[in-house]
Amino acid sequence: MHNQQKVVVITGASQGIGAGLVKAFVDRNYRVVANSRSIKPSSYPDVTVVPGDIAERTVAERIIAEALSRFGRIDTLVNNAGIFVAKPFTAYTKEDYGNVLSVNLDGFYNITQLAIAEMEKQRSGHVINVTASLVDNAIDGVPSVLAALTKGGLNAATKSLAIEYARRGIRVNAVAPGIIKTPMHAPETHEALGGLHPVGRMGEISDIAEAAIYLDTAPFVTGEILHIDGGQSAGH
């Protein structure tokens, strides 16, 4: 195993944090299976792309099948796909609710269940869930109930799975970002969003990618919710 390139599956991999994760793992000689609804073919020879909505079980099955067919194993799964809808609680629609839960929870459930089943066969593996710092530290003026409901649930699931699989060679951790400088945030909002962090600035995509790499190379760490949030989790 140690002489083989490790294989990582990354969801939500087409842009922003997901694209940064793909590059970070490729730079460290991993083979990557990358998924998102809008993903384009990759120029990296060790990256296989599988387009599709991770909320659909058949898409998760295709991702796992492609990883095994192309690379023969799955060492790490990074559950990065997610939707954030910032609306007052009473303004959420039935469609908002369904969309957020389908990607954030169904997507996690589908791919993680299948990936862990393969990891059990090799008695090793690692799952990293990308959640959100704000589920533990609500911010006035940033409505986030559906994020709290889903990403907070993933934090709890991270610890539960870590204990369930600790003696089977499988680790489970989470990265909980603060507000990260991605294309979803217009440049004119950066100063205000940066001010929501005690350090006075937004995080960078590389901060999240480096946290994921750290967790993947830390064999004694499991059940950890690693806050990469410029101090938000410490207080305001």
From TrEMBL:
Keyword Magnesium appears in the UniProt entry: no
**Keyword check for Oxidoreductase:** yes
Which keywords fit this entry according to its UniProt record? Oxidoreductase
InterPro entries reported for this sequence: NAD(P)-bd_dom_sf, SDR_fam
- Could you say which residues form the signal peptide? none
Gene Ontology MF annotations:
oxidoreductase activity
Output the Pfam families linked to this UniProt entry.
adh_short_C2 (PF13561)
Which family, according to the similarity comment? Belongs to the short-chain dehydrogenases/reductases (SDR) family.
What is the name of the protein in this document? SDR family NAD(P)-dependent oxidoreductase
Organism the protein comes from: Dyella monticola
